Amino acid sequence: MRRPAAVVVGVFLGTVLLVGAKLGTRPPLDLGAAVSSTPDEPVPGTPGEPSASGSPRTADPSGSPTTRRSPAKPTKRSTPGSDAPADGGLRTGSFAGGTVQYKYGTLRITITVSDGRITDVRASHHGNTRVSEEINAEALPKLRKEALAAQSARIATVSGATYTSQAYRTSLPSAIDTAGG
Amino acid sequence: MRGLHRVEHVMGTAVSLHIAGSLPASAVETLAERTFGWLRDVDQRFSTYRHDSEVNRLDRRELRYPDCSGDLRTVLEACADLWHATDGWFDPHATGRFDPSGYVKGWAVQVASDRLLESGAADHCINAGGDVRVRGVASVASGSDVTTGGRPSRWRVGIRHPWQSERVSWVLAGADLAVATSGSYERGRHVVDPFRREPATGLCSVTVVGADLGLADGYATAALAMGAAGLRWLAGLAGHEWAAITDDGEAYRSAGLPVVERVDDQRGG
Hints:
The structure holds 2 protein chains of 2 kinds.
Chain A: H1 4-13, H2 15-23, H3 31-36, E1 93-96, E2 100-102, E3 105-114, E4 117-127, H4 131-136, E5 143-146, E6 157-159, H5 166-171, H6 174-178
Chain B: E1 4-10, E2 13-19, H1 25-46, H2 54-59, H3 70-85, H4 101-118, E3 124-128, E4 131-135, E5 155-160, E6 168-174, E7 176-183, E8 192-193, E9 198-199, E10 203-210, H5 213-226, H6 229-235, E11 241-246, E12 251-254
Antiparallel strand pairs in B: 1-2, 2-3, 3-4, 4-7, 5-6, 7-10, 8-9, 10-11, 11-12
Helix pairs in contact in B: 1-4, 4-5, 5-6
């Protein structure tokens, strides 16, 4: 209930992370480093390569297509130590998925495991910012680009963003309250 | 002037009500009082600023779902549907607590408009802090409208220019429109990207036009949160028309937006 977006995205994309955590083949990693890290490097000799039907497309911001096979493989980062699963469950630590490309930009999921339980799921998102790329990406026949007009036509009312906060309540000129008489 | 125009401060913003048409004055007064009474009631129960509001009691878990009012359950379901429909970009938890304000205002006005229509006030316009619901025709006498020869004219709804508060970028006209605008130009970047938990950037104004003001409001907020990607998302939004302005001042709109060509008093541009 508290974080539905992250949780559901986590369920969708984080399954492979659970596989990695369950197999217990990787030490935990530092959360901060994981979130800001570059895309995954292949780690040799590890089982549990996620096969994942519906596996997301590989993020490839650097444009080197052949080196990253599995975008959602847990990233290996430092911090060795008491990471053995207590009872065959999940390993304690934070596990970051690879970056995945989706239609709103790039996403990476990180889960935190403590005492065999997932205690947090985080999504770090990097949006696409270039409008021209968005618009040119595909033909959009229903979309029109126009010059921004500044008219003063006769109208009944105006739609626009306005204050809706408590600050507005106190700053609103009293005149408007009586404007309608 | 025939009909009624009243402005009241409710739900944290200014709400303007026009009732046009030829209903008796006493009936119009009653309908206006009922309309504002409903909006005040919604404010009491749904405001996040009121400690004892139903929404805050739910957020504090003092209230459990089965004990929620029918209205609150309606809102909860609608928010969940919007969350799905926008791939999570409309997120009533984006600020770290349950806050359905992005839907409630539009929903409340939509309900008010529906009730006016049922009560025989077929011609009306409600503007709640920039979210607009119009139905029927504008009052004949309201503008001595020479362009229509005194005949009843369609409601004209301007979409505010983001940086020139007295100007509008588009003028819409119609007999049954819900027009919701979300923007960053008035309150700053208050719409939060629910994935990054940071203020959204890329678009400074998004207007969505449809039949339901709550939905239109939710979609506009979601598209603003998406940033530039919101343009493509809007282009694929079924059953709605839209207009958007980027942070760079580029203007985009759907081909079917019910715009009035610039015939009156046009200046600037």
